[in-house]
């Protein structure tokens, strides 16, 4: 199929910042793109050939949108899967496959899948609701402490709670859930895997999330992770296996833990470009976004190696500020070496809203880390 | 001034591929952009906030367009300068300045400027027309051989002719012209200089144009140039002086020759992003396009160093093909290491039309050069 300056059409469900950055790389290939998003002010709106406003969870909306596209992909998982299934049946290429999206959607089923496929993951038990979980505790089939997770719908820390005693169960929502063993870990890692329909497969280097020493919040995504080479190789091997097990086409971001005894356990996956891969725009030979496009169009995958060390800092709205956004000290950080701000194009800031990110690249990781800290301490997202 | 996610508006005169790539970098800063171009199908059309179709040489069109913008820049020099002058008088920021555009427009005046500012350049004589030049020959005030240049309007090899005898004068157009000394040179080089209104100034590394051994055509733009370090330093110093002499704001691409005895002589300049800087998207810490934006918005300049070696190959329409473009073997070259195609988005190819370019990056220059040759020999722009 001829994708370049042709009548080929790629459809993207979701028009947020991931879509915006994905579209950026469609421009250099001159691929026609259609975007569906509920918001009139979606960051993706400007860089696509045609923008459609509509509900991503409505069968007809997604189905009619998909009918116009040769290949359909997503930048957000929460979309109408029945419509995607029907489109796939009718011969449209849908990547990631609706089957995988359905499997991933329920965290209990996702964990079962890892167990069935011999993918290392922490022990888990599934419960239809909190009463079911309570019963298991009563019968000593479940012990404190554990990690409670809502089976569906949680993200960015929502729907997850560490439960150390019965007190922590108080006020948990009445939804299907799971309990996972609380694994003491040294590091939170992620590996992005790119795989095309031919089965060509490549992993990006392992990245490390560095947390704020007090607040339990990721401060920096660091590539490559400052970990032992053998652990890194193990993490990449595990991630490869996860992508193969799903028979995945496109990007798969595999989040995992490095345990105290240097084992790798898979936490969860995202079947699309991922926050942990934003560093790749500046640091990698081929950005995660370009490789997602290459993968879903069954083109050869680009080199996933890094040219230089990369660190990513998220720009989130500061507490106490809501309204027309101002990026305080952005000019100051732009004077630092190897610093590129990415402003997503949301006019209104509010507390903790993801407004952009900043990438810091440098030949020398220690230097990059130093500059990243200056960036973090300088810039403020206020109104 | 706050440029990021604000009401600030940047206007760009011209909507070709340079504008398209420039706009790409405005997206990550979320800067509002307006584009004026005569073609309904301008490559820039998709990535700007507002597209206006109009004649770039019409006073009213350019003036009315400029009135809507806080800062105005160009991606093509051939625009109505009177309108830009009036806009500048009225307080709009116009970069490059209309004064510089006027000075550069006439190659005779441009050469005079170099002489006045002690910038090394080949000897030249100006003539009002070809008869005036003929008189100089008759009076022995001019000798063969020399390079004839049309004073205005020529580009990409048009309006330039090597004149070795009276026979070569036959059929030259009746226009203002100049005769330049024919300087034997080893290499054709270029240096891009970025300078902001504060006067911060940085040069990119020297690039080298490698010509086809038989056809007199640039095949590869190579960064860094494979030349002696001292010559490279001299070239960068000369380019810095040229930018300062113009008091230039924005990018200035300085084209020059390395003579047989390792002198640097300036040939001509382009006051904007330039074909010789396309490699920078993949190879540099900061692309030429991002630095043009930083410069004209008086932001701190980004690092102009390279992460890796970069080679650029232009994709031009093959002779004998006109119509809906096909990029033959594009999938093949995408399988090579470090290869990124940039397709400009022109649907119709015709002989020698600039349709795109391909960048090859690699840690090792020799390896990049080998892959560049494979790219050049594989890809064909046909219909």
From TrEMBL, chains A, B:
Entry-linked PROSITE patterns: ATP_GRASP
EC class of the enzyme, as a word: ligase
GO biological processes: 'de novo' IMP biosynthetic process
Reactions that this protein is recorded to catalyse: 5-amino-1-(5-phospho-beta-D-ribosyl)imidazole + hydrogencarbonate + ATP = 5-carboxyamino-1-(5-phospho-D-ribosyl)imidazole + ADP + phosphate + 2 H(+)
Protein name: N5-carboxyaminoimidazole ribonucleotide synthase
Listed pathway(s): Purine metabolism; IMP biosynthesis via de novo pathway; 5-amino-1-(5-phospho-D-ribosyl)imidazole-4-carboxylate from 5-amino-1-(5-phospho-D-ribosyl)imidazole (N5-CAIR route): step 1/2
Cellular component terms (Gene Ontology): cytosol
HAMAP family linked: PurK
């Amino acid at each position: 199929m001829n994708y370049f300056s042709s009548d080929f059409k790629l459809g993207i469900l979701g028009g947020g910042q991931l879509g915006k950055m994905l579209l950026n790389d469609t421009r250099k290939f001159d691929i026609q793109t259609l975007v569906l998003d509920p918001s009139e002010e979606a960051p993706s709106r400007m860089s696509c050939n045609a923008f459609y406003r509509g509900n991503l969870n409505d069968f007809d909306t997604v189905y009619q949108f998909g009918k116009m596209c040769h290949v359909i992909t997503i930048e957000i998982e929460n979309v109408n899967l029945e419509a995607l299934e029907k489109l796939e049946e009718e011969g449209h290429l849908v990547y990631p496959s609706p089957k995988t999206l359905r499997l991933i959607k329920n965290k209990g089923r996702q964990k079962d899948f890892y167990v069935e496929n011999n993918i290392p993951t922490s022990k888990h038990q599934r419960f239809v609701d909190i009463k079911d979980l309570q019963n298991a505790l009563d019968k000593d089939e479940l012990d404190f402490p554990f990690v409670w997770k809502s089976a569906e719908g949680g993200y960015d820390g929502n729907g997850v709670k560490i439960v150390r005693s019965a007190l922590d169960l108080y006020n948990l929502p009445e939804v299907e859930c799971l309990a996972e063993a609380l694994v003491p870990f040294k590091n939170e890692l992620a590996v992005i895997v790119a795989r095309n329909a031919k089965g060509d497969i490549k992993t990006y280097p392992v990245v490390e999330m560095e947390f704020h020493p007090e607040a339990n919040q990721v401060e920096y995504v660091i590539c490559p992770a400052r970990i032992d080479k053998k652990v890194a190789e193990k993490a990449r091997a595990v991630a490869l296996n996860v992508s193969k097990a799903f028979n995945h086409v496109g990007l798969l971001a595999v989040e995992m833990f490095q345990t105290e005894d240097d084992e790798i356990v898979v936490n969860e996956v995202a079947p699309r470009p991922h926050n942990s891969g934003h560093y790749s725009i500046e640091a990698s030979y081929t950005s995660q976004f370009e490789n997602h496009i290459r993968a879903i169009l069954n083109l050869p995958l680009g080199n996933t190696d890094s040219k230089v060390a990369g660190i990513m800092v998220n720009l989130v709205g500061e507490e106490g500020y809501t309204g027309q956004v101002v990026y305080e000290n952005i000019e100051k950080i732009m004077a630092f070496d190897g610093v590129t701000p990415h402003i997503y194009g949301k006019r209104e800031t509010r507390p903790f809203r993801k407004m952009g990110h900043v990438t810091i690249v440098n030949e020398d990781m220690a230097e990059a880390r130093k500059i990243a800290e200056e960036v973090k301490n300088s810039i403020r997202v206020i109104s």
